[in-house]
Write a structure and sequence with these properties.
The structure holds two protein chains of two kinds. By secondary structure, chain A is an alpha/beta fold. In chain A, 40% of the residues lie in helices and 26% in strands. Chain A has three domains: 1-30, no CATH class; 36-131 and 226-264, Periplasmic binding protein-like II (D-Maltodextrin-Binding Protein, domain 2, 3-Layer(aba) Sandwich); 133-225, 3-Layer(aba) Sandwich (D-Maltodextrin-Binding Protein, domain 2), CATH 3.40.190.10. In chain A, a hairpin with a 3-residue loop joins strand 2 and strand 3 (60-62). Chain B is 79% helix and 0% strand. Chain B is built from nine helices and no strands. Classes of the chains: A alpha/beta, B mainly alpha.
Chain lengths: 272, 222
C-alpha cells in the first residue's frame, strides 16, 4: 500500500501500483522497504500534506476568513515549520481521515485522532500531542484530586453520557450525582451554582470558559483519557521518529503549551 | 426487523420507578395544598376587589397562565440564582407547581365565588353570622363545591406536568424512566410501564379528590 502514495498524481500509475501492491501482499512480500520513505518525499516536494478537521472546534474549524483554524492546524503548521517545508491542509471528516492516510493522499493525519487497537493495525501513531479527556471540573480554588473526595459533594452530569456511566461506577455512595437532560442544563446548573462540580469533556469545558466568565471550569481529575496522536502511514519509521522529535521539542520549549493555552484555555497536562 | 419485547430490564428497576412515583405524588400533594391555598387567597382578592391585591393577583394570573410551565421552572432553577435565590431541585419543582396551580385555581375559584348571589351574604349578615363564619360557610364552601370538578382536573394536570421537573434533575417518575432508559435502551418498555403508572396515579388522585370533595366540600355545602 505504501507505493500508492506517490502514484496519486497519475491515475494510470496508481492503478498499476495498486495492482502491484495487491500482488505483493498476496505473495507475502512488503513493498515498503523497497520504496523511498515518505519523509524524503516530503523534503523533496517541499510540502507537507496534512489531513485536518474543519468541523470540530477547537481542534479544527473554519474561521471568519474561511481558513481552517484550531489546535490541529497550529500543530500541523508547527511540524511543517520544523521540517522546513510548506504546509498543505486537506480538510477531512472523522470517517475519512484514516483512508486519506492509507491511500497516500496525506502525509500525516492531525485530526484529534485517538489511539485504539483497531486503528493501530492500519496506521502508526506518534506520541500524544493534545489532551482529550472526560473529567471532573469545578471552581479553581477548590481542591479535588480523586473520585473518593467527592463524598458529600454534589456533582452534575448529563444523563446517559460516558461521564455519567463512568462516574456512577467510581463515586462514593455519599456523593450526590444530579443527572440533567442535556449538556446545556448540566453546564447551566454549574454556572448558576446549583451543583458544586460537573463531569464533562475538556473540550466542552474549554468552549464554556471561552464563552462566559460566570464561573470558571477548572480541571480536577480525569475520568476517561483518550489523548490525540498524529497518524503516520504504517511502517514510516523515519517520519514517525521525526514527528516525535518535533513533538518532544515543542513540549520542552513551551510552544505546544502555547497552542493548548490558545485553544483549550488550559495548560498542557504534565503527564501528556 | 421484528422487535423483541423484553420487560425484564425495566422491572429490574422497579424500586426506582416506585420511588419516582412516590416522589411525584409527594410533589403533587404539597403543590396541590399550597397551590389551592394560594388560589383561594387570590380568588377572594380578585372577587372582592381588595386593592391593591386584586391588581397584583390579576397580573400574576396573566403572567403564569400565558407562559410555559417549563420556562417558569427554568426561571426559578437557573434564573433566580442570579438574584442570589438558590434552591434545590425539589424546592424549585414544588415552588413552580404551587405558583402554576395558584394562578389557575385563582381563576377557577373566583368563578365559584362570583356565582354566589349577593343576597345570600346579606341573608347571613341579617342572621348575625360573624364575618369569618360568613366567609367559611356562605362564600367559600359553596364556591368550592361549584368548581370542585374543575379543581380536580387542574390538580391532575399539574401532577402530569410535574414530568418536566425531570429536566432539572428532580428525581420523580419521569426522571426514573429516563434514567432506566439511558441504561437499558428499552424505550418502548420503559415508557409503556411509566405511562401505565401515570394513568393509574391520575385515576387514583381523581377518585381521592372526588371522595374528599363529597365528604368535606360538596356534601356540607348543601
Amino acid at each position: 500500500m505504501m507505493s500508492a502514495h506517490t502514484a496519486t498524481r497519475r491515475p494510470f500509475l496508481r492503478s498499476l501500483c495498486v495492482l502491484a501492491a495487491g500482488i505483493a501482499v498476496s505473495a507475502g512480500l512488503g513493498l515498503s522497504d523497497a520504496r523511498a520513505d515518505v519523509l524524503t518525499d516530503i523534503q523533496k516536494a517541499g510540502t507537507l500534506r496534512v489531513a485536518v478537521p474543519q468541523d470540530f472546534p477547537p481542534f479544527g474549524s473554519v474561521g471568519t476568513d474561511l481558513k481552517p483554524r484550531g489546535y490541529d492546524i497550529d500543530m500541523a503548521s508547527l511540524i511543517a515549520k520544523e521540517l522546513g517545508v510548506k504546509i498543505e491542509l486537506i480538510p477531512v471528516t472523522s470517517t475519512n481521515r484514516i483512508p486519506y492516510l492509507t491511500t497516500g493522499k496525506a502525509d500525516l493525519v492531525i485530526s484529534s485522532l485517538g489511539k485504539n487497537p483497531d486503528r493501530e493495525k492500519v496506521i502508526d501513531f506518534s506520541d500524544a500531542y493534545a489532551p482529550f479527556f472526560n473529567g471532573v471540573f469545578g471552581p479553581e480554588d477548590v481542591k479535588l484530586t480523586k473520585a473518593e473526595e467527592l463524598a458529600g459533594k454534589t456533582i452534575g452530569v448529563t444523563r446517559g453520557s460516558v461521564e455519567d456511566l463512568e462516574l456512577t461506577k467510581i463515586t462514593p455512595a455519599t456523593a450526590t450525582i444530579k443527572r440533567f437532560e442535556d449538556n446545556n442544563a448540566t453546564i447551566s446548573a454549574y454556572l448558576t451554582g446549583q451543583v458544586q462540580f460537573v463531569a464533562t469533556g475538556n473540550v466542552v469545558a474549554a468552549a464554556v470558559n471561552d464563552m462566559t466568565k460566570l464561573r470558571r471550569l477548572g480541571s480536577k481529575f480525569l475520568i476517561k483519557n483518550s489523548p490525540c496522536y498524529v497518524g503516520v502511514a504504517k511502517g514510516e519509521a523515519a517520519l514517525a521518529t521525526k514527528v516525535n522529535a518535533i513533538i518532544a521539542k515543542a513540549k520542552k520549549d513551551g510552544s505546544l503549551n502555547d497552542i493548548a493555552q490558545r485553544w483549550l484555555h488550559a495548560p498542557l497536562p504534565k503527564d501528556l | 426487523m421484528a422487535y423483541r419485547f423484553d420487560f425484564a430490564p425495566v422491572f429490574e428497576h422497579t424500586d426506582l420507578l416506585l420511588a419516582g412515583a412516590g416522589f411525584t405524588l409527594a410533589l403533587t400533594a404539597v403543590g396541590a395544598v399550597l397551590g389551592i391555598g394560594l388560589g383561594v387567597t387570590g380568588a377572594v382578592c380578585r372577587a372582592w376587589k381588595l386593592r391593591p391585591f386584586d391588581r397584583m393577583f390579576g397580573l400574576y394570573v396573566e403572567v403564569i397562565r400565558n407562559t410555559p410551565f417549563l420556562v417558569q421552572l427554568f426561571f426559578i432553577f437557573f434564573g433566580l440564582p442570579a438574584l442570589g435565590v438558590r434552591m434545590s431541585e425539589w424546592q424549585a419543582a414544588v415552588l413552580a407547581m404551587v405558583v402554576n396551580l395558584g394562578a389557575y385555581s385563582t381563576e377557577i375559584i373566583r368563578a365559584g365565588i362570583q356565582a354566589t348571589p349577593r343576597g345570600q351574604i346579606e341573608a347571613a349578615e341579617s342572621l348575625a353570622m360573624t364575618r369569618p363564619q360568613i366567609f367559611r360557610h356562605v362564600v367559600l364552601r359553596p364556591a368550592l363545591a361549584k368548581v370542585w370538578p374543575a379543581l380536580t382536573s387542574q390538580v391532575i394536570i399539574v401532577m402530569l406536568g410535574s414530568a418536566v421537573c425531570s429536566q432539572i434533575a428532580t428525581e420523580e417518575l419521569t426522571f426514573a424512566a429516563n434514567f432506566i432508559q439511558s441504561r437499558n435502551f428499552r424505550a418502548f418498555e420503559t415508557y409503556f410501564v411509566t405511562t401505565g403508572m401515570y394513568f393509574v396515579m391520575a385515576l387514583a388522585i381523581r377518585q381521592l379528590l372526588v371522595q374528599l370533595g363529597q365528604h368535606y366540600v360538596v356534601g356540607r355545602a348543601r
